[in-house]
Known about the structure:
15 helices, Serine Threonine Protein Phosphatase 5, Tetratricopeptide repeat, alpha+beta
Amino acid sequence: MAEEIWHLAPDARAAGLLALIELDAKRFDEAMVWNDRAHGADPGDARYVLQGARLAGLKGDRAGAFDRFAALLRAAPQSGTAWLEFVGAANASGRAAEAIALCAAAFDADPTLAVALQALLNLTRDAAIVDASSLPAPAAVQQHRPISIVTCSNDDSRYAAMAASYARALAGWPHEIVRIADASSLAEGYTRGMTRATGEIVVFTHDDVEILASDFGDRVLRRLSTCDMLGVAGATRATGPAWPFAGWPYLHGAVIYPDGPGYRVTAYSRTVPIAHDIRVMDGVFLAMRRDIALRIGWDAEACDGFHGYDVDFTLRAAQAGLRLAVASDLGVVHRSYGSFDERWEASARKLVARHPELGGERGAETGFVARSVPDAAHAMALVDNWARMGCAR
Length: 393
């Protein structure tokens, strides 16, 4: 019946149906003939381009599959899961470099096109680059300036794991860990910790953090040389009582999370390895010179719980004219995702009352892209290779 329709008057839908019938019978060459007829009859319908790309892959025509996927995504970048199929075609055809360029261009043109960013992350290598010619020039050796790690922790085992991780990451660096075990709020505990800290650089950190970068001190100092306050996730717009409320394309940074025996690397934008002009940041990790911490100060009166302290602190820093930035290559693992419970709601109301700009409209989309890897070595390799893929600003 479909053939009769086609012979009476070439109709793209009839040819597309015939392609599906031939595909079901696993006659891929015949299916491709009908698919090309469908596309010729209606070149504006992206469904036939997608069908052709899939058929080319089934036929074993890897180059053809790649070319068809690429043509589809250039013409119709909103083609959803086709981006993820495109990754497979790129890897199968050995044309990852071309695919990376296409993904980057599409996301740069539309920074809300999350699926293109996900495809880019999937194409990023998670093994160390051994070709020295492909590596960036080595950074200048950083002077080992004393670092104070300040944390609030009433859990001995969690604190011990965190302290051991920082000790490994800062091996050879003069550093101390200031633990506040009886904080009534994070702002109150950080205030006490800040006054006890002796290091030139102070890092305020949650106690469920792990550091994967072996040259962590160098990385922190390198990034702090271009800003006054450094985090790992934040937004260039302050429009709600939580930094992710800004939505894409205002979110930046990267955080790693546990994923079974391995890790899950999450990224918020392609602005890597560092994004500037940040307004609010996540409090899981914040680094700065001690004098800046003292100058801004943690407000234990306004932030009397364990939520909102970070948005208040970083927003006041931005309002004071300090340069805030988030880095994506520090290798910081956070062992919890946080929650928006009743206590958070109470803190949020206080924050909005104190900072009217936080009562703005929530971003249309809040999210991230992520990829799982089996171990710490793969996680850091992915983080470092991702940092080479971006467009720092």
